[in-house]
């Protein structure tokens, strides 16, 4: 029933190359979502494997954020099923959904840092709220570790309003990573950043993939970000999976809708 | 008519109140956040409520005095002012001041949290944002407005005493005796009871407007503004209902 059946288990020390990965961690099967007459997603499907970075490419307003919000259970699809780490999202109760969300990181497009809290409190929030009793003693250490990972240890006592856009993005990333996630959903991690900062974020994404052997679904229309982070690329257009392949494969695709992104 | 925006909004707001009743009294309880909100809503409103009710008590006394002198009824000033403050002005002024200060800030705060996806972020961080944000604020407002009203009453009466002494000398004992001797339980109880509803209305409307704010920065302003307008209006409507109810029960 569940699509989570490792055919062969990779040796623990094996480098996480996409070829050696077979375990499916996320399946989106034929989901549709409409807001009134606005049919955003129509029969969209994708499969994400362990340790893989998949990029979902799409025009503004094509429903990319709606897709990730359906995956994390913030929106309910009208039709179709979503399976995350072997569990059907739609059928989970609150407790089970919270437990699942503790294993899935979500970087919001707008960062969604809590304005009224300092950086430290922002990072402590998911840590404390997810009832992880075993981490009680090491909260402080985890916060510092997460801030070191994104290179901003000095901001710990600042408020989000005092940070630059790029810094906020990194703090949001630190908050996403503080509970080591198995799957990370990045909603446009580099949009609105200067090219230098954007490349640093790309490197962070790659670094995280290697460090945690996590899978990532990256929403983006920044082609440099796509090229640097993607193991596989899906083009979301007309509400469905319009094209799929590696970056190079899609770059060769003559279809005008696909080609428009690589021009 | 039932399809008009007014009824749609009314139904949505009643649904919101229903959700509060369903979710508010089931674990997990957000005690820390409740205490925090009581501090913000209650303690931080003290100066504003204190100053306004002081001025009201003083002005009322000074204004009333010439008329009462004409009627030779100066000894009735304390009880007249006292009754006015305890039954009407104290609750109404506290309600309006809290609606202006707290209602708007709840509307703006939750509105901007909605718009910038902070509410969604709470939800994915193992937190029920309705309990954490809404229930705590509605409960805090419901608990704090009555307390603030009692304090406003006391400050208003103190100002009345000051006003009387500006133009004559009355001992505290005589003043207190004059008021307390003529106040009945039936006059005070409904006046205090209605302030729970004032607080509930302020919290509910502020949270409803903010929690359902429309996308975009404009939505935040609209939420804050309509929260104040609606909750101020609601306070007067509730006051009218309170008069009706106390009359029906023979409390007046
Ligand atoms: N909560 C909602 N209610 C109504 N419509 C919505 C809602 N969320 C999204 N939409 C609509 O769904 C469509 C897709 O929105 P979405 O945010 O997913 O776009 P996107 O692909 O993420 O675009 P961008 O690259 O600009 O972030 C838009 O037309 C939007 O108006
Ligand atoms: Mg988006």
Describe the structure.
The complex is a heterodimer of chains A (263) and B (252). By secondary structure, chain A is of the alpha/beta class. Chain A has one domain (5-20, 51-68, 94-262): P-loop containing nucleotide triphosphate hydrolases (Rossmann fold, 3-Layer(aba) Sandwich), CATH 3.40.50. Helix content of chain A is 34%, strand content 24%. Chain A has helices spanning 64-71, 94-101, 119-129, 139-149, 165-177, 195-212, 223-229, 247-252, 256-262; strands spanning 24-35, 38-49, 53-57, 79-84, 87-88, 104-107, 183-187, 215-220, 232-237, 240-245. In chain A, the strands form two sheets. Chain A has a six-stranded mixed sheet with strand order 6-7-8-3-9-10, sandwiched between helices. A four-stranded antiparallel sheet of chain A has the order 2-1-4-5, with helices on one face. In chain A, helix 6 links the parallel strand 7 (183-187) and strand 8 (215-220). In chain A, helix 3 packs across helix 4. The radius of gyration of chain A is 18 Å and the shape is globular. By secondary structure, chain B is mainly alpha-helical. Chain B has one domain. Helix content of chain B is 83%, strand content 0%. Chain B has nine helices and no strands. Chain B is elongated, with a radius of gyration of 21 Å. The mean pLDDT of chain B is 92. The interface between A and B is medium-sized, with 24 and 15 residues. Bound molecules: adenosine-5'-triphosphate (ATP) and magnesium ion. The site of magnesium ion (MG) has 5 residues of chain A, from helix 1. Residues 35, 38, 40, 58, 60-66, 109 of chain A line the site of adenosine-5'-triphosphate (ATP).
């Amino acid at each position: 029933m569940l699509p989570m059946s490792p055919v062969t288990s990779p040796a623990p020390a094996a480098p996480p190359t996409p070829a050696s990965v077979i375990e499916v961690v996320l399946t989106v099967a034929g989901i549709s979502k409409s807001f009134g007459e606005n049919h955003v997603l129509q029969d969209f499907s994708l499969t994400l494997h362990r340790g893989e970075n998949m990029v979902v490419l799409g025009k503004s307003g094509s429903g990319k954020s709606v897709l990730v919000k359906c995956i994390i259970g913030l929106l309910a699809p009208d039709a179709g099923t979503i399976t995350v780490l072997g569990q059907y999202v739609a059928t989970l109760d609150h407790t089970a959904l919270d437990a699942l969300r503790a294993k899935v990181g979500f970087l919001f497009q707008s960062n969604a840092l809590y304005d009224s809290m300092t950086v430290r409190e922002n990072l402590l929030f998911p840590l404390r709220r997810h009832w992880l009793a075993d981490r009680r003693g090491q909260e402080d250490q985890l916060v510092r570790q997460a801030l070191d990972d994104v290179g901003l240890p000095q901001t710990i006592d600042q408020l989000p309003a005092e940070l630059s856009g790029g810094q906020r993005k990194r703090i949001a990333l630190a908050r996403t990573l503080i509970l080591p996630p198995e799957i990370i959903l990045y909603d446009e991690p580099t949009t609105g950043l200067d090219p230098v900062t954007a490349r640093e974020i790309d490197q962070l994404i790659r670094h995280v993939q290697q460090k945690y052997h996590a899978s990532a679904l990256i929403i983006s229309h920044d082609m440099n970000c796509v090229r640097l982070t993607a193991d596989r690329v899906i083009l979301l257009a007309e509400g469905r999976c319009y094209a799929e392949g590696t970056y190079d494969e899609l770059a060769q695709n003559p279809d005008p809708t696909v080609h428009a992104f690589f021009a | 008519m039932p399809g008009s925006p007014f009824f749609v909004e009314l139904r949505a707001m009643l649904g919101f109140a229903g959700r509060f009743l369903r979710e508010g009294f089931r674990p997990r309880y957000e005690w820390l956040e409740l205490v925090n909100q009581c501090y913000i809503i209650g303690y931080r409103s003290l100066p504003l409520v204190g100053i306004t009710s002081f001025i009201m008590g003083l002005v009322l006394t000074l204004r009333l005095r010439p008329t009462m002198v004409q009627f030779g009824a100066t000894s009735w000033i304390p009880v007249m002012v006292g009754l006015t403050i305890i039954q009407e002005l104290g609750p109404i002024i506290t309600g309006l001041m809290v609606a202006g200060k707290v209602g708007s800030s709840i509307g703006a705060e939750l509105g901007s949290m909605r718009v910038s996806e902070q509410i969604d972020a709470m939800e994915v961080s193992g937190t029920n944002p309705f309990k954490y944000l809404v229930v705590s604020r509605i409960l805090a407002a419901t608990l704090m407005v009555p307390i603030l009203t009692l304090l406003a009453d006391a400050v208003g009466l103190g100002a009345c005493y000051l006003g009387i002494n500006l133009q004559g000398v009355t001992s505290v004992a005589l003043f207190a005796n004059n008021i307390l001797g003529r106040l009945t339980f039936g006059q005070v109880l409904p006046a205090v009871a209605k302030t729970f509803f004032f607080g509930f209305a302020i919290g509910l409307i502020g949270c409803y407007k903010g929690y359902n704010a429309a996308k975009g920065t404009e939505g935040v302003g609209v939420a804050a503004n309509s929260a104040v307008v609606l909750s101020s209006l609601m306070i007067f409507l509730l006051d009218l209902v309170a008069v009706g109810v106390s009359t029906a029960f023979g409390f007046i």
